[in-house]
Write a structure and sequence with these properties.
The complex is a heterodimer. By secondary structure, chain A is an all-beta fold. Chain A has one domain: Immunoglobulins (Immunoglobulin-like), CATH 2.60.40. Chain A has no helices and eight strands. The chains are: A mainly beta, B alpha+beta.
């Protein structure tokens, strides 16, 4: 399954504004508790276990995700707009695969 | 002697089979029970005390927003907001969310920073049944606050 990230960062903001950032990642978030109906075996766990949002190399927010986070993990949070730049987002899957995305903001 | 034993077994074959069958059933029952085991409030509390390093949590400052009734437990929107100025000297370090009635109590942990400006995070979570969801916030000065919200779940969403 292709893991397609979607991020929403406001294009423009005034300095000092508090902006909302929304992220959505398409991912099944297999809990490891489900059984395969045909074989009766547990389906191995495969989730996004870590999310990091950083601005110009400095971490703004990070999250450790557990299987109780719903499929297609959605995360929304705030950031203070201080200067123009790029927000970088990184999701880490069980097994170490990472998926990245970014969003630009112009601060006036 | 050995012949006698054999005979007893042969006569009681049906009984033996029955008991073996029941044994297997009981075994299946226990294994099923353990895989679907529910976290208890005690487990949730234990997990939280590991996260907070044993610091006692005070009620307040933390608001957990969840729907009163979640029709579909596989995706329930949750927002946690913490009353904090989020300045460099006074901010929320981390927030841990636990569900007391899910197979595993831990849901998600957030590490916040003063760069956020506002201590509010939203996500979507899975809920296995009607239960309490607790969020615990660790402040930059080391104090710990917690908030609780009960949510009624119509259809559980932890697979099966």
């Amino acid at each position: 399954m292709a893991n397609k990230p979607r991020v929403k960062v406001p294009k423009k903001a005034k300095s000092g504004d508090i902006i909302q950032i929304k992220t959505l990642m398409s991912h099944k978030m297999e809990t490891g508790n489900r059984k395969d109906k045909k074989t009766g075996k547990l389906i191995p766990r495969k989730i996004i276990n870590k999310f990091v949002c950083s601005f110009k190399g400095k971490e703004v927010m990070s999250a450790v995700l557990h299987p109780a986070v719903a499929a297609n993990p959605y995360l929304a949070f705030y950031a203070k707009a201080t200067e123009s730049g790029t927000f970088d987002f990184e999701w880490t899957e069980d097994g170490g695969k990472t998926i990245t995305a970014s969003g630009d903001i112009t601060v006036s | 002697m050995s012949k006698d034993t054999f005979n007893t077994v042969a006569i009681g074959r049906r009984e033996v089979l029955k008991s073996v069958g029941f044994g297997a059933l009981a075994l299946a029952g226990t294994s099923l029970g353990s895989s679907n085991a529910q976290a208890t409030p005690e487990e949730a509390t234990k997990y939280l005390s590991e996260m907070t390093g044993g610091a006692a949590a005070k009620e307040g400052k933390v608001t957990v927003k969840l729907p009163e009734i979640a029709e579909n437990g596989s995706t329930v929107p949750i927002t946690i907001s913490i009353d904090s100025p989020m300045t460099d000297s006074d901010y929320v370090k981390s927030v841990h969310v636990v569900a007391e009635g899910n197979p595993n109590p831990e849901v998600v942990s957030f590490n916040l920073s003063p760069a956020m400006g506002k201590a509010e995070v939203s996500t979507r979570m899975r809920l296995g049944k009607t239960q309490n969801v607790r969020a615990v916030a660790i402040m930059s000065d080391g104090s710990v606050y917690s908030g609780l919200k009960q949510v009624k779940v119509t259809i559980g969403g932890c697979g099966g």
